[in-house]
Design the sequence.
């Protein structure tokens, strides 16, 4: 007699268990909340080129990727930046219009690598604009923005250093692009906040 | 020594292999399609383990976020549904493991059988005819976890003990109490 056929096993109970549904959908869509958490994790974990699988793994998961993680300190700082930016904008803005900037994209070079020149141009324009507007911000707000930008810049530099060590890495490229996008997104939000003070 | 019981098979239509590979490579949209395919089973498990709609939703969210992190390590040695099931149980048991262990160890007096029922889950309110689901939700937590894992999903005492850190004998007692309580519910 197995454990599953103990003396207190009841046929009626067993029958009721067998009739339990395999699926019960949740009362609301949980995906948006899950998706938001996944997006937050993208900041610190990006797909990289698949590594050469070992023999037993090759058949089971031929296209599996791996993830690159950042130091815990940066993770916390990056999360803080995202929270700060979102909270600040939510608090301050109703319908801000981000300043017009060029569409950024990695530009291919003749040797198959890419340049992020358009990101650099956009970031430079937005930084200049923010510097002009920052004078109207409260000192405490300005200090927070500057601190957050330093954190983003450190992450960007780390990504660029990693790409410089392995220029052909698609994962490293994606990592740098994500860092640039975060910087530009933050600058746009910060500019939108500062623009409110202009009116 | 009897063979360990085989966990209850989880019938399902697996998500397309392309979606699985894409999600493993970091495609959140593909993972969203996997979520849509699997959430009903994961939520049913979460609802039975927690006995509470809100806690079940939190568990489902935690489980899928954990799955996203661990998906690159999924080797397809089991079905994705089984892998998600195990992962959800692990998340549940590891979440405040001390409290969970205390609940499993807690052997309530017979008087506790008349404790007031907890708030019902939304899903159970909708499907009011599912008496057993409601009765499971009313069980004390330790008895509920032991019953759900052992009787509903086919875990062995050894597996529950290993994952929860609670002695097998205690789990047997919890299971016995859960069955007796549920039989009483079915007799009403």
Sequence:
């Amino acid at each position: 007699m197995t454990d599953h056929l103990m003396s207190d096993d009841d046929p009626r109970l067993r029958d009721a268990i067998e009739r339990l549904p395999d699926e019960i959908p949740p009362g609301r869509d949980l995906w948006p909340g899950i998706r938001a958490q996944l997006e937050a994790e993208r900041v610190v974990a990006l797909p990289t080129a698949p590594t050469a699988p070992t023999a037993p793994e090759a058949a089971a998961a031929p296209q599996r990727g791996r993830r690159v993680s950042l130091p815990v300190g940066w993770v916390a700082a990056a999360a803080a930046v995202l929270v700060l930016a979102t909270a600040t904008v939510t608090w301050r803005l109703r319908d801000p219009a981000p300043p017009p900037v060029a569409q950024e994209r990695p530009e291919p070079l003749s040797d198959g690598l890419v340049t992020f020149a358009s990101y650099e141009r956009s970031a430079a324009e937005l930084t200049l604009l923010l510097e002009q507007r920052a004078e109207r911000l409260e000192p405490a707000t300005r200090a927070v923005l500057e601190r957050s930008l330093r954190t983003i810049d450190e992450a960007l530099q780390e990504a660029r250093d990693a790409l410089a060590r392995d220029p052909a890495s698609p994962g490293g490229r994606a990592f740098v692009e994500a860092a640039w996008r975060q910087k530009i997104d933050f600058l746009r939000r910060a500019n939108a906040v500062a623009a409110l003070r202009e009116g | 020594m009897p063979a360990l019981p085989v966990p209850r098979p989880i019938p399902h239509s697996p998500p397309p292999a392309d979606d699985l590979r894409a999600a493993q490579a970091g495609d959140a949209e593909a993972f969203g399609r996997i979520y849509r395919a699997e959430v009903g089973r994961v939520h049913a498990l979460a609802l039975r383990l927690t006995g509470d709609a809100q806690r079940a939703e939190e568990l489902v969210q935690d489980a899928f976020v954990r799955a996203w992190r661990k998906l690159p390590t999924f080797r397809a040695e089991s079905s994705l549904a089984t892998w998600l099931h195990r992962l959800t149980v692990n998340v549940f048991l590891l979440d405040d493991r001390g409290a969970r262990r205390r609940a499993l160890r807690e052997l309530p007096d017979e008087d506790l059988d008349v404790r007031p029922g907890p708030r019902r889950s939304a899903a159970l309110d909708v499907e009011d005819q599912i008496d057993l689901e409601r009765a499971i939700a009313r069980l004390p937590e330790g008895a509920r976890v032991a019953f759900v894992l052992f009787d509903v999903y086919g875990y062995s005492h050894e597996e529950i003990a290993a994952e929860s850190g609670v002695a097998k004998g205690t789990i047997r007692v919890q299971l016995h109490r859960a069955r007796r309580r549920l039989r009483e519910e079915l007799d009403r």
